[in-house]
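Here is the promised in-class demo. Please do not try to memorize the tokens; focus on the logic of going from shape to residues.
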């Protein structure tokens, strides 16, 4: 997952850095990846990796939304043989960029229009699109529209747990 991709040039750089030759320029590095995947040699891993790597381009700024159509046209963005790569909307940073505050209430017209633009562009170019959600109801609703929905609120979960444990410790 690569945050704050704002232009097609940045998306091309992400693809190039993420994929092995001949698609990109990523180095082979350690042989441990091939062993973890049950392959005998690093060459076997490199041969299979370009089709199995998951690349998520995060659209989370005004510039990213403005350029999303061009970003979607970059070869390697949102496509691979297993259709795992995708555009991913970072709603908190998008809200901060568009609205000047976070989190969004998901009622702000400019915020909703930006999400609509990203989804429409992704669909127009045959790309997958995902979003982060923070509660069950929002996640249920998002599943109707997005190819991938991540229900996550690790900070609030940790805060709730820590608060409970701290209350016990102080009692």
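The designed amino acids, position by position:
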């Amino acid at each position: 997952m690569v945050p704050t991709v704002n232009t097609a040039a940045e998306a091309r750089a992400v693809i190039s850095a993420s994929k092995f030759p001949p698609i990109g320029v990523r180095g082979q590095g350690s042989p441990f990846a091939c062993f973890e995947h049950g392959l005998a040699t690093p060459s076997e891993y490199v041969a299979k990796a370009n089709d199995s790597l998951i690349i998520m381009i995060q659209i989370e700024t005004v510039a990213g939304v403005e350029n999303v159509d061009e970003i979607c046209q970059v070869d390697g963005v949102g496509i691979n043989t297993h259709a795992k790569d995708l555009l991913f909307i970072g709603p908190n940073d998008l809200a901060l960029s568009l609205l000047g505050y976070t989190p969004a209430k998901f009622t702000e017209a400019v915020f909703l229009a930006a999400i609509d633009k990203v989804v429409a562009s992704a669909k127009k170019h045959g790309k997958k699109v995902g979003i982060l959600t923070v509660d069950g109801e929002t996640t249920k609703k998002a599943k109707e529209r997005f190819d991938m929905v991540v229900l996550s609120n690790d900070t609030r979960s940790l805060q709730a747990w820590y608060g409970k444990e701290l209350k016990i410790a102080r009692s």
